[in-house]
Amino acid sequence: MDQKILETEKLSKLFIKFTIPSIIGMIFIGVQGIIDGLFVGNVIGGNALAAVNLVQPYMQIIMAYALVISVGAQSVIGINLGKGENEKAQNIFRTSLILLTLISILVMVIGIFFSDEIARFLGANEVLLEGASTYIKTISYFVIFVSLMFLFEMIVRTIGKPNISLVSMILAVLLNVILDYLLINKLNLGIKGAALATGISYASAFFINIMPFLSKKTVVNLYKGKFDKSCLFPMVYNGSSEGISSLSNALSMFLFNTALMKMAGENGIAAFSIINYIAQVGYMVLFGIADGVRPIISYNYGADNEDRVNKTLRTSIIANLVIGGIIFIVMEIFSEPLINVFLKDGKSVLEMATAGARIYGIAFLFNGINILISSYFTAIDDPKSSIIVAVSRGILFITVGIFILPYIFGINGIWGSIVFAEVMTIIICFKLFKKNEPVEVTNL
């Protein structure tokens, strides 16, 4: 079976085989929003860009519950496949599919009928309300496809077919570019066109990733298994740290948008939007490595191959440190020309975003390890430690930083709160390693 390569293939080859498609796939997920930002910012203008950024917490909530179930299912399925318990793995897959579908239907209905209320709650003023509400309502029609895409994309890698995930992401991004050009630039559909382009591209990725599961020969598929309520808590609990990461992104964006609206108005939110687009590419590379090695770690953890688990973790830490350093250098040196790509005018936004990006970039010296360690704990079925890391970097220290640092450093304190959160979290990570001793820390 394809999943057996996780236990038998040479680790260096396996690392490349799984992380490269995952990195590219995650980048393409991040690029979806960037493509919208490029078209919206250059064709419609700064206020439209701010409106799209305001609704990102709503998108993060969709990703949050999707990742809780998808990552939890991926890790538990991987461990059970490693143990040879294929029937249990199939039941977990069926349970996750049913649960995710039901939640997605509920969220879709809420988004369609309460888009104005959601937009106002997220901080939209009269200038931004119409655009934000339109984006929320339009993207809500695609919630089921977006959510289930994550599930099938995660599990398709666990069954040893990472290239399917890669192909789906590449095609989705190409489609998004084409649709953004047609719907925004040619048909003048504005923000609604941006949401349609994103929704349709996610739907295309869903249909590609579902293909292997239509075969009864696949170790987990759409035809076997049953809903097993006994696996609900372990699955959701194990994936909860990934959901917390997405929820924390929603919270931090809400806090950032609120603080920036008070301090700098729409220009502040537009500046944050651009910084977020640039940083998102860096985050997706780091998440791609963590995401790519998770099925390797979970499968070998289930098969009691401790040495393969430790070697995979060491390699991943080194890779994330190197990549984080490169991203830091890029944001320090090339922030102004990168930011200029998103704007057709607006000197004040450019200056604000350039200064903010250089401060924000420092966080990449630390966050690669934090992202990886959280994912590692999820892979070895230690959700408690993973949750501690996710809450620390995404909720606790971000909140503390954003409420304190702006009073000391002004607007630079808002950007600096990200750095503060990552530095404090890396201390937590090392303490968790020493306490739990999941690997030989001295050999890392």
Automatic annotation (TrEMBL):
<feature type="transmembrane region" description="Helical">
    <location>
        <begin position="387"/>
        <end position="408"/>
    </location>
</feature>
<feature type="transmembrane region" description="Helical">
    <location>
        <begin position="164"/>
        <end position="184"/>
    </location>
</feature>
<comment type="similarity">
    <text>Belongs to the multi antimicrobial extrusion (MATE) (TC 2.A.66.1) family. MepA subfamily.</text>
</comment>
<keyword id="KW-0472">Membrane</keyword>
<dbReference type="InterPro" id="IPR048279">
    <property type="entry name" value="MdtK-like"/>
</dbReference>
<feature type="transmembrane region" description="Helical">
    <location>
        <begin position="359"/>
        <end position="380"/>
    </location>
</feature>
<dbReference type="Pfam" id="PF01554">
    <property type="entry name" value="MatE"/>
</dbReference>
<keyword id="KW-0813">Transport</keyword>
<feature type="transmembrane region" description="Helical">
    <location>
        <begin position="190"/>
        <end position="214"/>
    </location>
</feature>
<feature type="transmembrane region" description="Helical">
    <location>
        <begin position="134"/>
        <end position="152"/>
    </location>
</feature>
<feature type="transmembrane region" description="Helical">
    <location>
        <begin position="61"/>
        <end position="81"/>
    </location>
</feature>
<feature type="transmembrane region" description="Helical">
    <location>
        <begin position="20"/>
        <end position="41"/>
    </location>
</feature>
<feature type="transmembrane region" description="Helical">
    <location>
        <begin position="93"/>
        <end position="114"/>
    </location>
</feature>
<feature type="transmembrane region" description="Helical">
    <location>
        <begin position="317"/>
        <end position="339"/>
    </location>
</feature>
<feature type="transmembrane region" description="Helical">
    <location>
        <begin position="414"/>
        <end position="433"/>
    </location>
</feature>
<dbReference type="InterPro" id="IPR051327">
    <property type="entry name" value="MATE_MepA_subfamily"/>
</dbReference>
<protein>
    <recommendedName>
        <fullName>Multidrug export protein MepA</fullName>
    </recommendedName>
</protein>
<keyword id="KW-1133">Transmembrane helix</keyword>
<keyword id="KW-0046">Antibiotic resistance</keyword>
<feature type="transmembrane region" description="Helical">
    <location>
        <begin position="268"/>
        <end position="290"/>
    </location>
</feature>
<dbReference type="InterPro" id="IPR002528">
    <property type="entry name" value="MATE_fam"/>
</dbReference>
<dbReference type="InterPro" id="IPR045070">
    <property type="entry name" value="MATE_MepA-like"/>
</dbReference>
<keyword id="KW-1003">Cell membrane</keyword>
<feature type="transmembrane region" description="Helical">
    <location>
        <begin position="235"/>
        <end position="256"/>
    </location>
</feature>
<keyword id="KW-0812">Transmembrane</keyword>
